[in-house]
Amino acid sequence: MEFKNVPAIVTGGASGLGEGAARTLAAAGCKVAIFDMNAERGEQVAAEIGGVFAQCDVASTSSAEAAFANAREAHGPCGILVNCAGIAPAAKILGRDGVMPLENFSKVIEVNLIGTFNMLRLAAAEMAQREPNADGERGVVINTASVAAYEGQIGQAAYSASKGGVVSLTLQAARELAREGIRVNTIAPGLFMTPMMAGMPEEVQQSLANTLPFPKRLGKPEEFGMMVDQMVRNPILNGEVIRLDCALRMAPK
């Protein structure tokens, strides 16, 4: 798909991987809308890249529909969706304080998996109305999973399950939306320099980087953006989950 003037939506675009994707798409010529809960930072990033911002709870039907309406009014129907919004609280199934509360598990599934699907379904409805290109393509959806979908560490039950669901959704959604000319792919990142990671002590960051086979450094948000760029550009990349992880395979803890 071409980038120039294509309306793009990035959830979680106010920081981290989402910000990296938003900046990449804007630099390529897209009209970018950032959806995030952090209004102050989201508006700042949107202004810097010449886009628009909409505060959005991705797991809420009404909030998501309102955000899509705002983006559509500003730029037209969505042609590219990048799902980066997510949460990653850690908790053991059986911890020192007892069994994990069910609502803790449910919240992560709600944001990471249901939120991803909520955005995908609303974007697909808009993409299906767009004029197709020579290949019949109308839109591209890129979801974000995690290496935790494959090697969940101790304390990641909810997070791993939610990201495993995103991985499993990829091929199914690609097959179902193929008749509408919509491609669906997923990126499964490893260790990246996100705001949460940047807040950790330098020795902790280095310790984590030392677990990476090569290169032995944390990924950069702009490198996540590079993968987004390639997934949009390559017309036959569809239904695929790509690990972006320096060949990392997570240990149990």
Automatic annotation (TrEMBL):
Short name of one Pfam family: adh_short
Domain of life: Bacteria
Keyword Oxidoreductase: yes
Keyword field: Oxidoreductase
Family to which the UniProt record says this protein belongs: Belongs to the short-chain dehydrogenases/reductases (SDR) family.
Protein name: 3-hydroxyacyl-CoA dehydrogenase
Organism: Marinobacter salinisoli
